[in-house]
Amino acid sequence: MVLVYAMATPHPQYEPHFVACWGRPGQTLLFGGSVLDELTAAQIAIRHAANCHAGPRPLPVRPDDTTARAMVVERLRALRPTTGSRQISIGVLRGDLLHIQRSPKWLYETLQHLSHAEPELVRMRRAPRGYPGAPDFELLA
Asked: Nearest-5° angle of CA 96, CA 72, CA 5?
């Protein structure tokens, strides 16, 4: 299964699009980024689907909020720098969106919550601007 999806932004003309191949167990191939528009993403999906030999699989079951939050924390711990800190945005979780199945707003609010609940892991860098894609967080070593 090859999916095309976008990460919502306040400016639809700048929505980054992604292509995910969900056909291989334990692996999701991801193509995309800030410059991939919907047409290009669709073309990549069609080309990939024509040559992909992965078997069909259903979409993962949408996890409950507690499980989804745990998935976010697990990913952040994996991305944690060994020294210093690392500026991040919710874009670092784009590869996990298929599994988490939550909106960018939910991810942003979760990072805000974690900055208070787990300040040794993540902190807010400045006051939020109300835009989920803003790099307003910092992962700590």
From this structure: 25
Q: Are residues 77 and 127 in the same domain?
A: yes
**Which DSSP helix (H) or strand (E) runs through 5?**
strand 2-6
Phi and psi torsions of 79, nearest 5°? -90, -5
Dist CA 83 CA 70 (whole Å): 23
Residue with tokens 């976010």: 72
Looking at the DSSP assignment, which residues form a beta bridge with residue 122? 139
What is the pLDDT tens value at each position of the chain, 141 positions in all?
Answer: 777 777 766 555 666 777 877 766 555 666 666 567 888 888 888 888 888 877 777 777 899 999 999 999 999 999 999 999 988 877 777 777 777 888 878 888 899 999 999 999 999 876 555 555 455 789 998
Residues 127, 81, single domain; the answer is: yes
